[in-house]
């Protein structure tokens, strides 16, 4: 195989998603919902399947109805009239949208700044396009080892970020709300990152797929709305995260025409166009949410889910980061002990302690989580070893069951 894929044959998802199925553990691993999308979205998809125009190719940049709905829904959030022809591109999931951005702007050896921990897909998206990831850490305060902290306490040192810039740097990737920390970057942090991007003439790829999931008092701010940053920012969004349709693969990019056109040119060569009936259904979903408080209600539902799950970590005195957004909780598992002679499969031999902890939790405790050392560069992998990431995009009943199972750790 090509070196582009050889190292990523067995990623964390291909180990833990089958493990959850095989052990029948409550799956709080990969971030997908165990409930259906809202009725208005589900019905719209069914209706779309009956229409000829929705069963054929769409324009490569996306169906007009979806681009219009995106412009209407996001225009006020970006404080501008979004041009449906040139400033919006519908992608085959946020992931493919990001892949297309890297394909469009990276040359062999171009560098991309990532904050650690990071969503692991960024790495292959960058390297498959000839780029090189360069890392800068988000750091938790020392007290995080013994007490709960707010996601906001994970900090970026902007001088350190700037020190990583070379003549080859092209893009800074920002992820807010952040997976796996749940950090929602505040305006001052975004401004400081933006200043660095301006000073060194860099693009910003802002992965905001959890933009509809933030918890009061945190508020989601968009870096593209800060002075002088629209011109250099591509913002990524996700129908899957917004409406509980992660398998539909509908995402989007929003940004200036002179950037979007190159991402579109890459996307056209990768997938040509995106799933038509599902685009139509997401368009209907966004139209509905312009009139109805669906996203506000969803935030309330998720706040409750977060609180159900985190209550057990309180009971167990396992310190965790209280997420301000996204649907993940990062828990310090250093106190969780498993037998040294436990029969772990050979695939875990080369992995960090967190892979063993999560394997054991799935097998013996009946809850599957994701080991976050996968979200660090090889040099910093040990920083993730004392943590597990739990997803709470599940029904309250399933979360209660997970709480019940986790009580076995007492
Ligand atoms: N974004 C989701 C997560 O972090 C799904 C990841 C994936 O399937 N690659 O869990």
TrEMBL record:
InterPro entries recorded: Aminotransferase_I/II_large, Kynurenine-oxoglutarate_AT, PyrdxlP-dep_Trfase, PyrdxlP-dep_Trfase_major, PyrdxlP-dep_Trfase_small
Record Gene3D superfamilies: Aspartate Aminotransferase, domain 1, Type I PLP-dependent aspartate aminotransferase-like (Major domain)
Listed cofactors: pyridoxal 5'-phosphate
Gene Ontology MF term list: 2-aminoadipate transaminase activity; kynurenine-oxoglutarate transaminase activity; pyridoxal phosphate binding
GO cellular component: mitochondrion
Residue ranges occupied by any Aminotransferase class I/classII large domain in the UniProt entry: 24-406
GO biological process, any: kynurenic acid biosynthetic process
Keywords for the protein's UniProt record, in alphabetical order: Aminotransferase, Pyridoxal phosphate, Transferase
Entry's family note: Belongs to the class-I pyridoxal-phosphate-dependent aminotransferase family.
PANTHER family for the chain: FI04487P
Protein name: Aminotransferase class I/classII large domain-containing protein
């Amino acid at each position: 195989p090509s070196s582009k894929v050889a190292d990523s044959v067995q990623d964390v998802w291909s180990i833990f998603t089958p493990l959850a199925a095989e052990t029948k553990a409550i799956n709080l691993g990969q971030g997908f919902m165990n409930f259906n999308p809202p009725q208005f979205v589900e019905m719209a998809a069914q209706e779309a399947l009956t229409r000829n125009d929705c069963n054929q190719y769409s324009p490569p940049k996306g169906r007009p109805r979806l681009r219009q709905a995106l412009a209407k829904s996001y225009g006020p959030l970006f404080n501008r009239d979004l041009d449906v022809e040139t400033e919006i591109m519908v992608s085959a999931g946020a992931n493919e949208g990001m892949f297309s951005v890297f394909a469009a702007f990276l040359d062999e050896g171009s560098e991309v700044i990532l904050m650690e921990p990071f969503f692991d897909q960024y790495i292959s998206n960058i390297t498959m396009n000839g780029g090189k990831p360069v890392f800068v850490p988000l750091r938790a305060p020392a007290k995080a080892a013994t007490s709960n902290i707010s996601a906001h306490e994970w900090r970026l040192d902007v001088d350190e970020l700037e020190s990583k810039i070379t003549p080859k740097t092209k893009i800074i990737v920002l992820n807010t709300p952040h997976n796996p920390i749940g950090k929602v970057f505040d305006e001052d942090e975004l401004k400081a990152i933006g200043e660095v991007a301006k000073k060194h003439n860099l693009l910003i790829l802002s992965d905001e797929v959890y933009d509809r999931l933030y918890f009061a008092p945190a508020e989601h701010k968009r870096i593209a709305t800060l002075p002088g940053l629209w011109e250099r920012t591509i913002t990524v969004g996700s129908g899957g995260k917004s409406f509980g349709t992660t398998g539909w693969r509908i995402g989007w990019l929003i940004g200036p025409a002179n950037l979007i056109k190159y991402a579109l040119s890459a996307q056209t060569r990768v997938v040509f166009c995106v799933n038509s009936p599902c685009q139509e259904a997401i368009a209907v979903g966004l139209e509905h949410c312009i009139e109805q408080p669906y996203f506000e209600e969803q935030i309330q539902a998720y706040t409750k889910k977060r609180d159900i799950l985190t209550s057990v970590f309180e009971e167990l005195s396992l310190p965790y980061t209280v997420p301000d957004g996204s649907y993940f909780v990062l828990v310090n598992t250093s106190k969780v002990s498993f037998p040294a002679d436990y029969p772990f499969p050979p695939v875990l031999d080369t992995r960090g302690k967190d892979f063993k902890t999560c394997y054991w939790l799935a097998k013996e405790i009946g809850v599957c989580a994701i080991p976050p050392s996968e979200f660090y560069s090889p040099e910093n992998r040990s920083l993730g070893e004392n943590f597990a990431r739990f997803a709470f995009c599940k029904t309250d009943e399933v979360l209660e069951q997970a709480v019940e199972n986790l009580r076995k750790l007492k």
